[in-house]
Description:
The protein is mostly helical. 56% of the residues lie in helices and 7% in strands. A hairpin with a 2-residue loop joins strand 3 and strand 4. The chain is flat, with a radius of gyration of 22 Å. Residues 166-175 and 183-190 have low confidence and may be disordered.
Amino acid sequence: MTAVLVARTALDAARWRERRRAHEERVDGWLVSHLARRCRGERHPVEVFLFTYYSHRPAQLRRWHPDAMVVLRDADPADLGRDYRADAAGVTLDTEGVRARRAEPLAWIRRLLPATAGRPARLGCVGTHEWAMVYRQTQREVRHDPRPLRLTPERTAEVVEERGRTGESGNFRRWGESKRYEADKRCRDQ
């Protein structure tokens, strides 16, 4: 890989703190409903998906990060997280450290992008990943159980099994079964 030198941009304390404040306010606007529902013990299907399936925490979304080649003046790397370091110019992302720590996923992404870039889009799977996620679950087991699904659990299983037999959606039936196994295992292990 060829190294590319890129000029770094420096932000004074007032500018980067204003950017951080604006980011936190914007994210807070998106999170306020979720946090209120969570306090009341209510679940929302999209938010449950984002915050439990993907394991995003609201605090992670609130954390502002500058671009990789930005230097922050009058900053403390400890306030920004483990991937930041101080040098004579200020605080910046430790890009080499991130590359070393995340080498395996970065290599996988580097292989994935060109492998998929030239392929035609497959858009005939609308809804099948959602169905696979609830494959063979009762209504009580579904993460967003207060909201009824469009199909009964029996009909969902029929659709998943039929599409799996015809190969329309690849391995999503097996994927749904493996996710169900992983969820069952996590419950047993707790």
